[in-house]
TrEMBL record:
Name of protein: Protein HGH1 homolog
Family (UniProt): Belongs to the HGH1 family.
ARM repeats: 46-75
Lineage: Eukaryota, Viridiplantae, Streptophyta, Embryophyta, Tracheophyta
UniProt source species: Gossypium darwinii (Darwin's cotton)
A Pfam family the protein falls into: DUF384
Domain of life of the native organism: Eukaryota
Length: 335
């Protein structure tokens, strides 16, 4: 005999819209508690496909279904089942379906699913030579276009980009000059959204783990890269002509006027770690000197009060003074 929960899950497929709506609301509410999540996880093989089918329904049903999936996907075991059943493809198809009303929820679902290696591989479309990278290109395009709206449903794409750049295949895809994805992403660093800024800085930082083999591809976009990395580390001082005359225009102009400092210490640390990873390479150090980077770091360090950020400055300072030969291997990992 079916349990109450089995009956409830069965109602998710009911032909009657009011019954289906009532069932999905109850399931969504259950996913909001630990006990509810645990109970539903025992029926993952039926509840997950049922909820995923409801994503294409009207908003009053698709929205609670998407909310339930977002909550359930916070459990790594359930997220793995979702990836296995092809939910990344379903979410991407729904995301670009005309008139979709659950965009933000679908993006948040992708954030959770790409915390798993298999989820990243699925989003990168690894193994599908014809389609590989298509999903990522679509997401980057949406991320860059939607920044002009105040209520931005694609803000969380920055977190997806951080996730996929933890994996070598993801970093290589973002750094591929033919695709030009990292250049588009970096230009979003000017956004007023902290979530978006963090996504961009975390993605750049992770991509810099490829500096040993892909330094040229990083420096190809130095016009955008150096401002995104050095402005957060520049402190609040207005720089004089003696300093700015040795910088490219895009850096010197920004530093010669009063500006809003980057207040979030995590972003400052990420920027400094990215600079460190570039500076580990001889060509990277030369490029940093060529934009008067060490002077910017010196001024920024004098302004800094956060111990973790100061430590990140000191790591670069030591490298610039002594050269990479005498450095211990970096213990930094992509995150």
């Amino acid at each position: 005999m079916a349990t109450e929960l089995e009956e409830l899950i069965g109602f998710l497929s009911a032909p009657s819209p009011p019954v289906k709506k009532a069932a999905v609301d109850i399931v969504r509410d259950l996913t909001g508690s630990e006990d509810g999540l645990h109970s539903l996880s025992n029926y993952a093989n039926t509840v997950l496909p049922s909820l995923s089918r409801l994503l294409s329904d009207d908003k009053e049903v698709s929205e609670p279904a998407a909310e339930a999936l977002v909550n359930l996907s916070q459990n790594a075991g359930l997220a793995a089942k979702m990836v296995e059943m092809g939910l990344i493809k379903i979410a991407m198809d729904m995301l670009y379906k005309l008139g979709s009303s659950i965009t933000q929820l679908l993006v948040m679902l992708l954030v959770n699913l790409t915390q798993l290696d298999d989820g990243i591989s699925s989003l990168l479309q690894i193994g599908d030579d014809k389609m590989q990278g298509l999903y990522v290109m679509k997401l980057v395009r949406s991320f860059c276009r939607s920044s002009e709206t105040s209520d931005d449903p694609f803000d969380h794409v920055g977190s997806i980009l951080v996730n996929i750049s933890k994996k070598e295949e993801g970093r290589k895809m973002l750094l591929d000059p033919k695709r030009g994805l990292l250049k588009q992403i970096i230009r979003q660093f000017d956004s007023s959204s902290l979530l978006r800024k963090k996504g961009v800085s975390g993605t750049i930082r992770n991509c810099c783990f490829e500096a040993e083999n892909q330094l040229q591809n990083l420096l190809l976009i130095s016009e955008f890269l150096w401002p995104a990395l050095l402005l957060p580390a520049a402190g609040t001082k207005i720089y004089g002509e003696q300093d700015t005359s040795k910088m490219p225009l895009e850096l010197g102009s920004a530093l010669s006027i009063d500006r809003e400092p980057v207040k979030d210490p995590e972003i400052r640390v990420q920027a400094l770690e990215a600079i460190y990873l570039i500076a580990l390479q001889e060509g990277g150090r030369r490029a940093l000197w060529s934009v008067n980077g060490p002077r910017i770091l010196q001024v920024g360090y004098e302004d800094e009060e956060d111990p973790k950020v100061m430590e990140a400055y000191e790591q670069i300072g030591s490298l610039l003074v002594h050269g990479s030969e005498s450095e211990e291997p970096s213990t930094t990992t992509s995150k």
